[in-house]
Amino acid sequence: MVLQRDDHRGQAVLEFDLESVAYLHGDEGRLALDEVAALPLTPASLVADIASVRARFADRAGILVETVRLRRKAVDKLPGTAGWLFTDEALQQATAGAVTAHRARRLSGARVHDATCSIGTELAALADRAEYVVGSDLDPVRLAMARHNLDTDGNGVPLLRADALAPVTRDTVVLLDPARRRGGRRTFDPRAYTPPLDAVLDTYAGRHLVVKCAPGIDFGAVRRLGFTGEIEITSHAGSVREACLWSAGLAPAGVTRRASVLDRDEDITDADPDDCAVAPAGRWIVDPDGAVVRAGLVRHYATRYGLWQLDPEIAYLSGDRLPEGVRGFEVLEQVAYQEKRLRQALAAHDAGAVEILVRGVDVDPDALRRRLKPRGSTALSVVITRLGSGTASRATAFICRPSR
Q1: 157-178 pLDDT, tens per residue?
Q2: 96 and 222, same domain (yes or no)
Q3: CA Rg, the chain, in Å?
Q4: Measured CA distances, 116 to 146, 187, 318, 320, 335 (Å)
C-alpha cells in the first residue's frame, strides 16, 4: 500500500511502503519502470501518461511514475544514481554528489558508521574511500531503498535498523545528518533537529563525529552546546550547500573554521594568515565565494591572493590583479550612491543590462534596476556598498565591467 500526504509546499506526495519497495526492486518492477521511463511525463503529457500507466499497471501506477520522475530529478544532483529508488523527501534532503565525494575524501581510510544513512547516498561515496563502512537508520522504507541502491552499485555495505542516539558501533567515525524540518517547517535551532544536536554531542562525547547541518547554522549556538571542533562551510556550483561539524580529533590542530570551495578545489581555514589591509578600491573588486563569507574567512582569503578590504566590516575585496579563475569587477567609475547620480553615470557608460550587487546598504537590486531603466548596449555591473563607520559612513556605487 502507498499512502499520500501533503508536503511542506502543500503538494501531494506519495509515501512508499516496504511492499512497494520490494516490488520496485524485483524483476517485475524493474521491467515496469523501464516502460514508464520511455514516457515523456512532461507537464503537457502528464495526465495522459498517468492514464496510460494506470491502464497498464493499475494500483502500481503511482509508485512507478513517482520513481521515474524522482530519478530524473536526481540526475544533476546525484550523478551515478541511475536505477536508484528515492522518496521525494529523501531526495530533497540528500547532499549533492560533489559534496558527499568531498566528505568521503576527508574520511579516506577511516572506519565510518553513517547513523542516519537514509537511502544510502553518503554510503555510496564512502564505500570506495573508507576502510570500513556501515549504515543504519530508523526508517525501514529508506533502509530498504538503501539496500537496493547499494546492491545496484555492488558495494555490499552492511545495513541495520537503529536509533542514531543508541550507538551500535565503536571505534568508528560516526556520521549524522539530522533532519532540519519540524511540522513541515525548517528549523534553525540545532536543539530542534531530529535527532537534536545537543543530544548527539552528549551521546557521542569523546567519539570521532561528523554532523551535517544547515549552512545558516548559528556558530555561537553550536559552541554553546560544547562543540570544540571544526565548522566547515562548503560551496558548490556557486551556492553554499551545507555546514559540517568535524570533531576536534578529525580537524587539523588550530583549525576551527574552514571554507571549502569545491569548484576551485580550494579550502581556507582560520589557521591561515589574515593580515590584509583596508584601502580604497584598486583596479578590481572581488566578491568572495559564499562559503568564505559564511565561514568568516574574508581576511584570510584576501591575504592568500594579495587583495585588501574596502571596509573592515564589508566582505567586498579589491586588488590590482584578479586571482586566476575568479570572477571580478573592473572598476570604471566610483560615485556616491544616489539614484540620480547613478542613473547619469550609467547612461554615460552606455549601460544596458545591469547586474547589481549590494552589501551593507538597504537596497533591493531588482527594484533599483527597474527604476534605473538602463537603455544602452553595454553589459555592466554595479557594486553598491557602505564604506566607513559612524558619521563618516557613506553609501558608494562602483560602476564596473565584469570579467565574465
Answers
A1: 999 999 999 999 999 999 999 9
A2: yes
A3: 25
A4: 11, 18, 43, 48, 53
pLDDT of residue 392: 79
- Distance set, CA 21 to CA 28, 63, 85, 88 (Å): 12, 9, 8, 14
Residue 242 belongs to some domain of the structure: yes
Residue at a domain's end among 237, 267, 297: 267
What is the spatial distance between Cα 30 and Cα 8, in angstroms, rounded to a whole number?
A: 30
The predicted structure's pLDDT at residue 151:
84
Residue pLDDT, tens place only, 365-380: 999 999 999 999 999 9
54: its cell numbers: 494506470
Question: What span, in angstroms and rounded, lies between the C-alpha atoms of 404 and 400?
Answer: 12
- Asked, for residue 272, whether it belongs to a domain, the answer is no
What's the residue count for the chain?
Answer: 404
Do 234 and 97 lie in one domain? The reply is yes
CA distances from 213 to 33, 92, 174, 197, 216 (A): 34, 14, 14, 9, 8
Q: Domain total for the chain?
A: 3
CA-based torsion, 236, 148, 157, 196: positive or negative: positive
Q: Grid cell 502507498 — which residue?
A: 2
Q: pTM of whole model > 0.85? A: yes
β-strands 351-359, 111-114 pairing: unpaired
Quote the domain boundaries for residue 379.
Answer: 284-402
Question: Is 275 within a domain?
Answer: no
Could you tell me if 107 and 208 lie in one domain?
Answer: yes
pLDDT at 147: 96
Question: Tens of pLDDT along 341-368?
Answer: 999 999 999 999 999 999 999 999 999 9
